[in-house]
Amino acid sequence: MKQNWSQSNFSLKRWSYWLVLMLAGLTMGDFTTGQESNSQETAAKQEAQDSAEDVDLEEEIIICEHADALKIYQPDEKTEITILTGAVRIKMTNGFLHAKKVTMYKDIATETFQKTLAEGDVELRDKDIFATCYQAILNHLDNTVDLKEQVIVIQEDDRLEADHFVFNRRTGERTGDGNVKFRVRIRNSKQTTSPDATTPPTSEPTKIEEASSTENSDDDSKADPTN
């Protein structure tokens, strides 16, 4: 009886030992999985930040001076959208943006705005360029402005009309298509010419010319009966 109790006690200890090992293994597995998940999330954020740093971003201040309504939401884990409606007036570093509706798309990981979409009676001022259209897309990553529908662009004395117009704010490259009309002022420089360039130079008579002139005057004297 005592021997059977000892065997049972040994079996119980053995099962307890294996149970402790199994629980420890499960705990370590959960801990390792959590570490891997955190490492992957950290790596993803670091990669997003590195990719943002690779792009030559120029800091620009955007101030909303007026809007009738504001809505901010996140359609997914990566994007935050800000919607301004009703006589929107936005002041920018190099100008302004006016429209009936403005939608701004922001990358959550990098905390940077990807693009701004303006719709309805758009007025845009960027440095020396003033433009009106129905829709404007400001791409903040490649620094381009895409204007669509009833586009009018004015720069100093130049004027351009088109259905679609794109200009690069960094390089200055511009393209337009669809019913393109433009007016440019061409300034020609006024060049003044010196009198020496228009009046041929006077040359002194050569000896041959002097001799020929003397012979002709002698012949005239002989032919004149009064002499």
List descriptors.
alpha+beta; lipopolysaccharide transport protein A fold; 2 domains; elongated
Describe the secondary structure blueprint for this structure.
Blueprint: H1 2-54, E1 63-66, E2 69-73, E3 79-92, E4 95-107, E5 112-126, E6 129-139, E7 144-155, E8 158-168, E9 174-177, E10 181-183, H2 195-198, H3 207-223
Antiparallel strand pairs: 1-3, 2-3, 3-4, 4-5, 5-6, 6-7, 7-8, 8-9, 8-10
Description:
With 227 residues, this protein is of the alpha+beta class. The chain folds into 2 domains: 1-54; 63-183, Lipopolysaccharide (LPS) transport protein A like domain (lipopolysaccharide transport protein A fold), CATH 2.60.450.10. 33% of the residues lie in helices and 41% in strands. It is built from 3 helices and 10 strands. The protein has helices spanning 2-54, 195-198, 207-223; strands at residues 63-66, 69-73, 79-92, 95-107, 112-126, 129-139, 144-155, 158-168, 174-177, 181-183. Strands 1, 2, 3, 4, 5, 6, 7, 8, 9 and 10 form a 10-stranded antiparallel beta sheet that branches. Strand 3 and strand 4 (95-107) form a beta hairpin.
Short description:
By secondary structure, this protein is an alpha+beta fold. The chain has 3 helices and 10 strands; from the N terminus they run H-E-E-E-E-E-E-E-E-E-E-H-H. Strands 1, 2, 3, 4, 5, 6, 7, 8, 9 and 10 form a 10-stranded antiparallel sheet that branches.
